[in-house]
Fold this sequence. Notes:
This protein is about 20% helix and about 30% strand. By secondary structure, the chain is an alpha+beta fold.
Amino acid sequence: MGIQFDAQQKIFHLQTKKTSYLMQVVKGKYLVHLYWGKKMETPLHPANALVMENTAFGANPNRDDKSYTLDYTPQEYPTGCSTDYRIPAISVLYDDGSRVMDLAYVDYQIVAGKPALEGLPATYMEDDSEGATLYITLRDKLKGVDVILSYTVFDEFDAITRSVKVVNQGQEHLLLERVASASVDFETMDYDFMSFPGSWGRERHIERTSLRSGIQSVESRRGASSHQNNPFIVLAGKKTDEEHGDVYGFNFVYSGNFVAGAEVSHMYTTRAYMGMNDYDFAWNLYQGESFQAPEVVMVYSAEGLGGMSRTYHRLYRKRLVRGKYRDEARPILVNNWEGTYFDFDEEKIVSLAKEAANLGIELLVLDDGWFGVRNDDRTSLGDWFVNNEKLPSGLKGLGDRIHACGINFGLWFEPEMVSTISQLYEKHPDWCIATQGRARTECRNQLTLDLSRDEVCEYIISAVNSILDNAPINYVKWDMNRHFSEVGSLKLPAHRQKEMPHRYMLGLYRVMKEITEAHPDVLFESCSGGGGRFDPGILYYMPQTWTSDDTDAVERLFIQYGTSMAYPISAMGAHVSAVPNHQAGRVTSLKMRGDVAMSGNFGYELDLMTFTEAEKEEVKRQVTQYKELREFVPSADMYRLQSPFEGNVTAWMFLSEDKADVFAAYFQIKGMVNPGISRMKFTALEPDAFYKDVESGQIYRGDELMNIGIRVRFYGDFQSKTWYLRKSM
Ligand code: DGJ
């Protein structure tokens, strides 16, 4: 495993537990892609792997060697304005107006472990023995520009990460106009393109289409990774399913504008790429300056989509998420948002806390409306001081009263925003994203603060820190409820205006770093109108994300199933809410709502005081069940068994790391008359081992559970059944 360089053949071989990635320097200049797939030894005939041939109408970069064209050469980091007409990874504009970049291999360096990416979130290693990083320098000699490609191999976690640094070593200034973090050429187009589009309340649904000639891509131009598209794409073999077949996953560790796609060429090859979006992006590089692009996490699996997801989940649980809550059980919470919206006062919140404590809930989260004069969504964002009319004891007093009930206290913030009706906006009208002379379009009655400005970042850090330092707060929900418009900064000079969206992200990451590091005991959950910024960039700072504002149990099956393609359930906030559901208007059983939410970070989001005694008993049962399950489910391997996108049934199961505990859930959306036979068929168990159903005491053999399964019968709509099985001696 690790990284080897065959100096004679100039072959780089990156090996993880189950995969190999091969590149070669050819013609003394080009870094070409040879192979990515199942683990293998370095091939005896690398020339056989290399596709460097001439094509009709292809240009030959070397007049003395007509054997190849760049347009057909699988390249590791292609440039444009030359003779590879496929999508380039990088584009620059030099001061003389020229755009050509002729990158040639210079040298390489291999280091143990994984150095951090300055100012950016990224996966990490705890110990240098966990893998290695390869840096390959490519240079444009004429202009003195270096492009340093970095590849990190996570041996055991079975993943490869890539990023790119552009260094201007030349005399001239240049404008970086496009910079992909990864570009991978595949020699055929025999793949399906999978993406995870959505909308507010409908995040990360699954789309799968055949590749076709031309570009298929997904992107965000909204200033956030967005509800509309996730920075995650998959190329899957045509026959690939959950457990079989080749899959290539690309996930971007970035929370702003991105683009990810696949281009099928005239020669039926495919180029997959991922990086920051060149829409609304340009970066000035003066002599000696460099630009570090964010990271892409690449996973190959020969074991279908399930194999790919489990690899991402393990890596993200252990080597993306950080801090105390990486390894600790997450508390069961109740959030007052759907219970009260803005209509609450101190006594109401304390009574909710008392009820929550009685039911075994561990944390009360006070959502929007506790600050400034905010009684609806028209005012006060930015004015981070308590509303004493609503909360006469202040946050400290309220926190103490909640703790006295025996539970913890959490608080909502939306630090990146400002209401036009606020003291902050009155004082600093220039602190928001805006373009001189243009309207400042409001969305949810608010503007976005310009986090490309240091003083804005400082304000947010000190406002949030001072609240966390002065009240007993154990949890923070960090919300963000609009996208950019009239994109610009009133502080940056004209030639840097296109730097603003990325500078915003760098500012946001600094703010999140400083606040989370100053409060290591606080659990942070991110949110953006639900799951509008569910990406690995944010997960690096905050270990869980509110998956969606849509809390309907049926809708959540789709959202949580789609989200699980890349992200572990330990990253997903999932709450039981009231019926009829506020978003979908649907009435589902409390049991099903609980079973869906238990496949995530479990909680409630309703007014517990409205529950009947029978419903409270069911809540107590759910709370007890989840406390048992959270000992292993959040860190277990997930197996998706039946997809909501394919029918009336959804099923999934979780197998603990030591394979001794199993939690499985089966959901049926519509009731059926004369439904035929339904069974829950388990997977990945030991065929000869015995498993005991903790609830019924029934003992099954593994092969029985996997081959015959357990008969499931339901009556009515919106039904569910769960099993907790323990391997018995
Ligand atoms: C959007 C979030 O997704 C909700 O959960 C809630 O916190 C509201 N914002 C509050 O304004």
